[in-house]
Automatic annotation (TrEMBL):
Biological or metabolic pathway of the protein: Carbohydrate biosynthesis
One Pfam family recorded for the sequence: FBPase_C
PROSITE patterns cross-referenced by the UniProt entry: FBPASE
Domain spans labelled Fructose-1-6-bisphosphatase class 1 C-terminal: 1-92
GO cellular component: cytosol
SUPFAM superfamilies for the chain: Carbohydrate phosphatase
Organism of derivation: Populus alba x Populus x berolinensis
Protein name: Fructose-1-6-bisphosphatase family protein
């Protein structure tokens, strides 16, 4: 795993070495659908990746199928090998019901309380 913090450099690395790029939506900020701008970041990269035989997705649909509603619209972006992107889309489609009895997803604090 490598993070260069440059979309162009990451795209070049994935085109030359393979792999997958993930910049999904942040569940902490549900109002924002992603961080990358659709028209001048996600769409150009998606076009290049698809021309090279890969795939680019928002996690739910193909990036190039997203109709922009505003100039600076933001989207999540996942791109790379077609099979890997397809698998990640399947993960996004699955629904998970988290129960509070799971210790990883339970309430954290200084003191544990009995599940009731």
């Amino acid at each position: 795993m490598r993070w260069v913090a440059s979309l162009v450099a990451e795209t070049h690395r994935i085109l030359t070495r393979g792999g997958v790029f993930l910049y999904p939506r942040d569940s902490r900020e549900p109002v924002k659908p992603g961080r990358l701008r659709l028209l001048y970041e996600a769409n150009p990269v998606a076009f290049l990746i698809e021309q090279a035989g890969g795939a680019a997705s928002t996690g739910r649909k193909r990036v190039l199928d997203v109709v922009p509603s505003e100039l600076h619209q933001r989207v999540s972006l996942i791109f790379g090998a077609r099979e890997e992107v397809s698998r990640i889309e399947e993960y996004h489609e699955e629904s998970y019901e988290l129960t509070p009895t799971l210790p990883l997803y339970g309430t954290r604090g200084l003191f544990r309380t009995a599940a009731g």
